[in-house]
Design goal:
A 4-stranded mixed beta sheet has the order 2-1-3-4, covered by helices on one side. It is α+β, with helices and mostly antiparallel strands. It folds into 2 domains: about 45 residues; about 90 residues, Glutaredoxin (3-Layer(aba) Sandwich). Helix 1 packs across helix 2. The structure holds FE2/S2 (inorganic) cluster. FE2/S2 (inorganic) cluster binds next to helix 4.
């Protein structure tokens, strides 16, 4: 084990964590063990860095990945209330995935469209000036679309 400051540790660990998350969509337990071994650090040190930053997730993402921006502009425009309401509607906290694996929820910092605050990113599509009502409509539309797709998939078998 090395004796590193928090900043040095983060600098050494974050690129690897980012790479794992980019490839797998999350940081599995095995990856922490593997990284600890590879970087000659303890698993606690790796996990400590990963859990300190909000952008790492420890569960596989759902079919639909919902990210709610809590950067300054979005926070001021009610992003926190939007996150709380969505969290309650889906029954999960940020960083978690619903039991049916359909939705994962994440809080993110600025997604680059502050003029459209509060912003939400759903499956890589950005939605601006989002309200609880518009987000509910969006999720309802996705649910309907998924049900239709499932039905037509069942019908073609
Ligand atoms: S703060 Fe949310 S898009 Fe910039």
């Amino acid at each position: 084990m090395q004796d590193l400051s928090r900043a040095d540790l983060a600098e050494q660990v974050i690129p690897s964590l980012q790479e794992v998350q980019e490839r797998l969509g999350y940081i599995p337990r095995e990856a922490i063990t593997w990284l600890a071994d590879r970087l000659h650090l303890s698993e606690q040190e790796i996990y400590g860095v990963a859990s300190f930053y909000n952008n790492f997730r420890f569960t596989p993402p759902g079919k639909h990945h919902l990210r709610i921006c809590l950067g300054t502009a979005c926070h001021v425009q009610g992003g926190d209330r939007l996150l709380a309401a969505t969290s309650e509607k889906l029954g999960i906290k940020p960083g978690e995935t619903t039991a049916d694996k359909r939705y994962s929820l994440e809080r993110v910092a600025c997604v680059g469209c502050c003029a459209l605050a509060p912003a939400v990113v759903l499956d890589d599509e950005v939605f601006g000036r989002t309200t609880q009502r518009s987000l509910k409509r969006l999720l309802d539309t996705i649910d309907r679309t998924d049900r239709k797709a499932k039905k037509s998939g069942e019908g073609s078998q």
